[in-house]
Amino acid sequence: MQTDTELWELAAPAFVHALPALMEIYAAAMDPPQDQLGGRKVIMEQHSRNPGFQSVTAVDASGGAVGFAYGFHGQRGQWWHDVVTQALRARDPSAERRWFRDSFEIAEVHVHPDHQGRGIGRRLLYRLTAARAERTAVLSTHSGPTVARGLYTSCGFVDVLTDFRFPGSPHQPFAIMAARLPLRERGAARSRGRSRVWRWTG
């Protein structure tokens, strides 16, 4: 579906300045407990200082933000990266090497509910990853047949870990997903005769 929104790339200082408006999008899209919003804002500010930070904001015709996405280069010493790779190391060390050796961590992708269903999330995802030099993109999303998971799957993401529980959230299962960069265009097919793992086997 066509949309008249523009995508703006915000450097880290501009992203932090825009966080009050972006947090409104996050709150509307995720509906978290109000007492968690302050902590989430602090985490986003900290993420903006990570190496390779990049953010994209969707802006409507009135100049208001309606969606955003950001990520950064994943590496040891980052909480999400260390928790996930530790779990993978115990279950499938080859998957850890394959997906996390040189990865771009997509930390957040959110579109305000009033603007969902217009392709904005997909545009944010492609714009965010289009020029990345990393080999892969990785992320976590709620388990189950959600709209977000369907979007990621259509872009080439596959499950690396399923029913994963982060420390502090034992009752909420997540899927850890990863894709080779650049992301697959919607509807693009793999070359005939090549398996799903051809890129890893040469």
From TrEMBL:
<protein>
    <submittedName>
        <fullName>GNAT family N-acetyltransferase</fullName>
    </submittedName>
</protein>
<dbReference type="InterPro" id="IPR000182">
    <property type="entry name" value="GNAT_dom"/>
</dbReference>
<dbReference type="Pfam" id="PF13508">
    <property type="entry name" value="Acetyltransf_7"/>
</dbReference>
<dbReference type="InterPro" id="IPR016181">
    <property type="entry name" value="Acyl_CoA_acyltransferase"/>
</dbReference>
<dbReference type="GO" id="GO:0016747">
    <property type="term" value="F:acyltransferase activity, transferring groups other than amino-acyl groups"/>
</dbReference>
<feature type="domain" description="N-acetyltransferase">
    <location>
        <begin position="5"/>
        <end position="182"/>
    </location>
</feature>
<keyword id="KW-0808">Transferase</keyword>
